[in-house]
Amino acid sequence: MSARELRALPDPLPAALVGASSVLLTQVPDIMSEKTVTTPGGIPAADFIENVDNHLESTKSNHEQALAKLQDLYSKYKFIESRLSQSKANLKGKIPEIKKTLEALKFLKTKSTGDEECLTDFELSPTILAKAKLKKTDTVCLWLGANVMMEFSFDEAENLLSGNLGTASTNLERIQEQLLFLRDQITTTEVNMARVYNHEVRLRKSGKLPAKAE
C-alpha cells in the first residue's frame, strides 16, 4: 500500500516567533496599548491616536520621531503577518493530506474483514504509480517525518490521524483569528501614521510647527 507522509504540523505562531515578536513590539511602548487585554496569539494591540498634540506631548517626541516609531511598529506587524500567512498556507496543504490518508485507512479497514485481495495503486514516486495487490492485513505504516516510519494497527492509526486533523483544524482557526486581529492593528497603525503626517503638514502651512528636537 502507499503510505502518505505526515509531517509535524506548524503551530499558529511558533514559540520562537512569539518571543521574538513580543520583544520587537515592546520596543515601541509609546504607541502600544497600555490596557491589560487578552489578544489573539498575544499580539500587542496598537492604540488609535485621537489627539496628535497630546500624543507628541506624552511621548516627548516630535513628528519625525513619532513617525519613525510608527513605521517601526508597522514593519514588525507586517513581519508577523507574513509568518502567520505562511503557517496558514502550510496547514491548508496538510489538512487535505490527512483527510485523504484517513479515507485510505478506512477503505483498507473495511477490506481487512474479507479474504479477497484488494487492487490498488502503489506510489513509487510523486509522478509514478504501479498496480499492487493487497492481501488481508491489520496494520499500516505511516510517515511521521524526519525519515521515520512506524507501523500502527488500524485503530491506532485512525486515532493518530484524527488527532492530527483536529489539531490542524484548531490551529488553522487560531491563525485566521490572529490574522484578522493583526490586520486591524496594521490598519490602525497606517491611520496613525497618516494622522501624524497630516498634522505636521498643517502645522507647517500655518507656521506653527515647533523647532525640531536636537
From TrEMBL:
> What is the taxonomic lineage of the source species?
Eukaryota, Cryptophyceae, Pyrenomonadales, Geminigeraceae, Guillardia
Q: What is this protein called?
A: Prefoldin subunit 3
Q: Which GO terms describe its biological process?
A: microtubule-based process; protein folding; tubulin complex assembly
Q: Could you describe the subunit structure of this protein?
A: Heterohexamer of two PFD-alpha type and four PFD-beta type subunits.
Stated family: Belongs to the prefoldin subunit alpha family.
What one GO molecular function would you report for this record? Answer: tubulin binding
Under PANTHER family, the record lists:
PREFOLDIN SUBUNIT 3
Q: Which organism is it from?
A: Guillardia theta (strain CCMP2712)
Q: What InterPro entries does UniProt report for this protein, alphabetically?
A: PFD3 (IPR016655), Prefoldin (IPR009053), Prefoldin_subunit_alpha (IPR004127)
UniProt signal peptide: none
* GO CC list: cytoplasm; prefoldin complex
